[in-house]
Amino acid sequence: MVKELTELQLLTELEPSVADNLNRHLSLAKPWNPHDYVPWAEGRNYAALGGVDWDPEQSELSEVARVAMITNLLTEDNLPSYHRYISENLSTDGAWGTWVGTWTAEENRHGIAMRDYLVVTRGVDPVELEKTRTIVLTRGIIAPEDFEGVLIQSAYVTFQEVATRVSHRQTGRVCNDPVADTMLKRIAQDENLHAVFYRNITGAAFDLAPDQTMDAVTRVVKDFDMPGRGMPNWRRNGVLMVKHGIYDLRQHLEEVLVPTLRKWKVFDRTDFGPLGEQRRNELGEFLEKLQRDVVRFEERRAHLLERQAAKAAART
């Protein structure tokens, strides 16, 4: 019978991999400054300083782009909650602590750049944005009660970082503004490097404790939700983003789950015990169901878009 490792044992045994991947990350990550991605010349004072306050007519973003930008920004804004949650489940000592601090500092740039861009270009209502930011940060992260421990956190953040990368890239494409597209591409590069770090740590965990890691990965995949869950208008905004391909079920399956699981060689491993085999089988069944769900979803979406196009044509 395979002995289950404690959290302390997992953290201790994985730390050399954390140190190696931290050094790898630092050798690849290129410093950048948020202010370099903001069109400051487009800015002007708001009413408090003798200017004009925001009006919807000032925004050049489409509804989809505006919703996606706000959702992505508010997700990034919740960084203090993520930092606390990750620190509690990983460690603030040694290589773990250095990584958590590095990750937090790099992630913080994302919210700075996006907010400055939106406020300067008057892409969104800054007053409503601030009200919603306050609500989101007051609530903090909303996670399943049993999503605790280094394996759960490493697996979840791997998938989440890849998903966020996809969302930022797709948002940049619908903004119809090369400045926003360039900024979001740069943010997505950070997310990709962060995903690789966590993916490599989870890969090391598979070699260290295959059954425990397989259990964690299966639980994360089956219960996965984006970190913005629970923010105001989350359901409505999420539906709009799914409808227009900012982040939908096929992207989640084919661009997030499948490539990551393939990197871990989940369905090729031969070192699982009974628990690992059971959880891998569950994961396989879940992915098969998800593939069927993708097809049904896309059929419904195509039908909905056809109906909306027909209604629009009838009005003209």
TrEMBL record:
Family as reported in the entry's similarity comment: Belongs to the fatty acid desaturase type 2 family.
Keywords noted in UniProt: Coiled coil, Fatty acid biosynthesis, Fatty acid metabolism, Iron, Lipid biosynthesis, Lipid metabolism, Metal-binding, Oxidoreductase
Cofactor: Fe(2+)
Assembly description: Homodimer.
Coiled coil: 280-315
Pfam families in the cross-refs: FA_desaturase_2 (PF03405)
Name the UniProt record assigns to this protein: Acyl-ACP desaturase
InterPro entries xrefs: Fatty_acid_desaturase-2, Ferritin-like_SF, RNR-like
